Amino acid sequence: MSSALLDEATRIAREFDYPADRVQRGVEEYIKQSNEGLAQENTTLSQIPTFVTAVPNGTEKGLYLAVDLGGTNFRVCSVQLHGDTTFSLTQSKIMIPRELMASGTSKDLFLFLARQIEAFLRIHHNEHFEAHLRRRRDGNDVEDLFDLGFTFSFPVRQCGINSGTLIRWTKGFNIPDAVGHDVCALLQSAIDELHLPVRVAALVNDTVGTLMARSYTSPGETGTLLGAIFGTGTNGAYVEKLDKVTKLKNMKDAHYDTTTGEMIINAEWGSFDNHMSVLPDTVYDQELDADSNNPGVQMFEKRVSGMFLGEILRRALLAMHNNPELGLFKTSKTSNVSLPSDSLFYRQWGLDTSLLSQVEADTSKDFVDVKAALKDHLKIENPSDAECQAVKILVHAIGKRAARLSAVPIAAILIHTGKLETENMVDVGVDGSLVEFYPKFEEYIREALREVSQVGVAGDKKVRIGISKDGSGVGAALIALVASKDENLRSPNGNAK
Ligand code: BGC
Question: For the Hexokinase C-terminal domain, which residue ranges apply (predicted)?
Fold first, then answer.
């Protein structure tokens, strides 16, 4: 194997080291920034009050609609909560056309979403839908509405359980005229334009949905503490004591139930340390940020989540490719590797993060899956073993740094809420492509958690981490239920009042 290539890959990989002392510093800084966020607006960690003041216990019942906007797909589902920790879910998924994500108007986008809801109702709840249309035609009072939970996974300043204004887009979305507007109202007016029997009852971040869904499906002694997403983006929502959310005092119009003494806070940790006081930084991170459509924000997310890891890797590999001494992926007398000029290797965001999962999973001696991934994703054929090994070294370094960074907010929240000091197990629900598909992602998170002095081996043993699938569906339905109870909305679908 070419040792120059491997030496250079190893050297670059070292730049991604994120050792224990830096994890510890990260945790301390996170706790500081999270306290700032609980006290005031416009801090790096938004710490958004969600107005959800209780987690479910598994006995909730009813039929609800939920929609999910936040990644590459738009999902519409109906969720039947059976009241015994189980549920049935019917869903449809559609890819969001790129032009609607980044160049259209908010009206185009929300009408598109409403049309998908209409199509879903026609296929799966046609009887109800037709009955509604009939009543409307006959001039009867139209009250027979579905309550819908709207999972909208972007930073939103919530004003109540069913309203909130968009702070900024993330994850490649960019529709400027929506910023500063109430996204529930935007969806409701598109729904009304199509005369659908649907009321937007709750606005839900996917992390809050994950927390709720986990709490419903695995009720423990104390409920779930934290819901976290490590997918296209990253973020977490956790249960906070109301009296610690001191900025609520300045929100004069806010109405919420104070009986539990708690509220779920959407941390928006993707923007942790935007000013880069403790986050690791390589030249590849810097270039990625400078060329992104939101430089200087979501700095934590840009080092951790799926939308970005592929691009970090691409930039590191490209640097080696452009280094004439190394000749990575270049044909020569000794190598007949082929890399066509239209390869996504040369395109910004061209390298999908699923390549990292595939490469990391390959333990074969002859790099079978690495080769397949390079060919499928980037049309790179006949790479040498040394080239494959170099890719593996970089992938491992970038993925491991992401996982170790992910431990920072988790540890900080465990410490800040004092939950490790109680007798009970602490439950954490997670979702997203990295935790699901990146080999050993959770193991690396746990390794770093144990290195944090206030967590240690004993603390780590108290933490139960479980995948919480369908948070954006079930979780949104659960919050729609809470909201419909709160507001005493009418409940035509057998929903709890
Ligand atoms: C968004 C969060 C979301 C996370 C995971 C981030 O980009 O800002 O609101 O929870 O992605 O989807």
Answer: 226-482
